[in-house]
From TrEMBL, chains A, B:
Protein name in the entry: Haloacid dehalogenase
CDD domains found in the cross-reference section: HAD_L2-DEX
One GO molecular-function entry: hydrolase activity, acting on acid halide bonds, in C-halide compounds
Family membership noted in the UniProt record: Belongs to the HAD-like hydrolase superfamily. S-2-haloalkanoic acid dehalogenase family.
High-level lineage: Bacteria, Bacillati, Bacillota, Bacilli, Bacillales
InterPro entries, sorted: 2-HAD, HAD-like_sf, HAD-SF_hydro_IA, HAD_sf, PGP-like_dom2, S-2-haloacid_dehalogenase
NCBIfam families: HAD-SF-IA-v1, HAD-SF-IA-v2, HAD-SF-IA-v3, HAD_type_II
Native species: Bacillus coahuilensis p1.1.43
Pfam families (UniProt xref): Hydrolase (PF00702)
Alphabetical keyword list: Hydrolase
Length: 221, 221
């Protein structure tokens, strides 16, 4: 269970927004290979953030996302065209929020809510503006301010400094098991939004709570 | 092209040995889900090494490999049994070398050859002994001596100190694109063993040479 929460902090991609909602656009561009492109794109996007952090070669998530898309398109045997890639990148500013998100955020009004993402501001701000969700959050936090990706401890310190809270006063929500592991390791209280019914990560770090989607959050606080 | 090489250093899993050669054992245990278990096992094994490094929670690769197997079995809806898991783990000491490996190593006799792996010694030494390949190498190098996984710069320094060579005097070979990126970033000369005809990683780091399997190596030196 969770208790004494002063700030509720949400991951963005996969947690508030469905990153596979761009699969339709990928199918328009690449036909029956669209779904595969969409999946590899997301997988490589995350992998490249890990690898660049490990190698000490940080680049903003917008560049990483573009590079991951180039890889994904090549991997299905298609020669990537710049114009096509830019059109698909633009979709990242128009992702679809999961259906329960706005209702849940509305019901949490009065609490300190923030987002904290690997995304750079050139991706996050247009997305939150376009979706109409921006007004629910007091802070938009990006790892880009410190140039250190999640799940490094350095990355999560941004939340403490920006929101003026202690580690154990933060409830952090993410659908990404690796992000929940990193946040738990850092000392946040954590809720894993396990939308797909995945098994627990085997990293010796358990989430404080596990929920199927954000609607369960309202009863927990 | 590569030149002025004083040491030839090989990655192990996927480079000298086929990690999916255990798919048969997985199929014996899990029937038509065996192949999926084998693939997820390898994917999670690599991911967990990245994540533990990023979180500052190093554990030896033997533990990570066991944890990844537990995840993989759970992910196909099977309750993992300890005995079954230990049997599968034992297979990691009996991986099959790729068919050209021994011929190539024989032809390189007289050169300084080493392996450098994320694997811990409790995995590497039995594997190399059982396969009969151990005698070809002057050094068995494991990241476990420094407790830092590839592709961190710290991990690759082991090669310099143990073999008493400069960065640019090392030819490093791996089939893993992320390992080649890390080695190139560190300053090794690199040969990507692209066994599956994969596209290049989009990490702004290109291998010095790309080969389909190790047999091309003989003509390059």
């Amino acid at each position: 269970m969770v208790s004494n929460i002063k700030a509720i902090v949400f991951d963005v991609y996969g947690t508030l927004f469905d990153v596979h909602s761009i699969v339709k656009k990928c199918e328009e561009e690449f036909g029956d290979k669209g779904q595969e492109v969409s999946l590899i794109w997301r997988q490589k996007q995350v992998e490249y953030s890990f690898l660049r952090e490990l190698m000490g070669r940080y680049q903003p998530f917008s560049k990483i996302t573009f590079d991951a898309l180039k890889y994904a398109v090549s991997s299905v045997g298609i020669q990537p065209k710049e114009e096509q890639l830019l059109q698909l990148m633009a979709e990242y500013q128009h992702l679809t929020p999961y259906k329960e998100v706005e209702t849940v955020l509305s019901s949490l009004k009065g609490k300190q809510l923030a987002v904290f993402s690997n995304g750079s501001r050139d991706m996050l701000e247009p997305l939150l503006n376009n979706s109409g969700l921006q007004s629910y959050f007091s802070s938009i936090l990006s790892v880009d301010d410190r140039k250190a990706f999640k799940p490094t401890p350095t990355s999560y310190t941004a939340v403490l400094e920006e929101l003026q809270v202690e580690r154990k006063e933060v409830l952090f929500l993410s659908s990404n098991g690796w992000d929940i592991s990193g946040a738990k390791s850092f000392g946040f209280q954590t809720a894993w939004v396990n939308r797909k019914g995945s098994p627990r990560e085997q990293l010796d770090l358990q989430p404080d709570i596990e929920i199927e989607d954000l609607s369960e959050l309202v009863n927990l606080l």
